[in-house]
TrEMBL record:
Coiled-coil boundaries: none
UniProt cross-references to PANTHER family, sorted A to Z: PROTEIN NO VEIN, WU:FJ29H11
InterPro entries linked to this entry: Auxin_embryo_med (IPR052957), NOV_C (IPR024975)
Native source organism of the sequence: Labeo rohita
Domain annotation Protein NO VEIN C-terminal: ranges: 8-59
Protein name: Protein NO VEIN C-terminal domain-containing protein
Top-level taxon: Eukaryota
Length: 81
C-alpha cells in the first residue's frame, strides 16, 4: 500500500491472515513472507483477522514490524516438521 501525506510518500507492506476461529493463534508464513518481514522491518504489517465471516464476533489484531517483535522476543517463531 502506498500513502501520501504532505507531499511525502510512504510504502507499507500488508499481509492479511484470516481464520474463522477466534482462538487460533498460530499463523502460517511462507519463506518469502518471512524474508520480506525481516527485510522491510517497520514497513511490514500483519493483519490477523479472527472470526472471519462472523460479523458479530470478528476481531482484528495488527502486528507492526514483525522483525522487531521477534528480536525482542515479544513474539515467537516455531518450525513444524
Amino acid at each position: 500500500m502506498t500513502f501520501t501525506n504532505n507531499g511525502s510518500t510512504q510504502e507499507v507492506f500488508v499481509e492479511v491472515k484470516t481464520t474463522i476461529r477466534r482462538d487460533r493463534h498460530f499463523i502460517h508464513m511462507s519463506a518469502n513472507e518471512l524474508d520480506l518481514a525481516l527485510k522491510e522491518k517497520e514497513r511490514y504489517h500483519i493483519y490477523r483477522v479472527y472470526g472471519a465471516g462472523d460479523v458479530q464476533n470478528v476481531r482484528l489484531c495488527r502486528i507492526k514490524n514483525l522483525a522487531q517483535h521477534l528480536h525482542s522476543k515479544s513474539l515467537e517463531l516455531f518450525l513444524f516438521v
